[in-house]
Each structure stands twice: as C-alpha cells, then as structure tokens.
Amino acid sequence: MRGPLCFPMEETMSALCPECEANLSLNDVMRGEIVVCPDCGVDLEVTSIEPAVALALAPQEAEDWGE
After folding, report:
1. Which of 22, 45, 49, 65 would staple 58 via disulfide (CB 3.0–4.6 Å)?
2. Which domains, and CATH codes, for the chain?
3. Given pLDDT bands bounded at 50, 70 and 90, which one contains residue 22?
C-alpha cells in the first residue's frame, strides 16, 4: 500500500498595486517576474518576496528601431 501523494503547495501572497492600490493575490511569484494588475491593467515587476511581496511599475521597453 502506498502513502498519500505529496504535491508542492502553491503559496498565495498578496500585495497592493502601486498604481491603483488594488489588492492582488499572487501564486508562487519570483523576484523579477512581471505580473499584470487585473483592475487597471498596468505591468508590475515583483521587486521583493521576503518578508512581503513588493511591486513596482515595470520598466517600459524602448523601441530599438532595428539596431
């Protein structure tokens, strides 16, 4: 007889959008990851995960104009 299957649990964290102050629920995010605010649609970068998740506006990608 086998024991119960063990699956890694998703860790849900919450943070506030710096643009609209919406409360975001985030699952298993990593530092540097880009997430989108579901309320205002802005791209956010995860700048820290410990001791709490911190978000900042993601840098805008500049056009390289084929260079």
Report:
1. 45
2. 12-57 (2.20.28.160)
3. very high
Structure tokens at 36: 């989108």
For the stretch 30-53, pLDDT in tens is 999 999 999 999 999 999 988 889
- What confidence score (pLDDT) does residue 67 get? 60
The Cα–Cα gap between 11 and 2 comes to: 26
End-to-end Cα, the chain, rounded Å: 62
Q: Which residues contact 60 (CB under 8 A, 6 or more apart)?
A: none
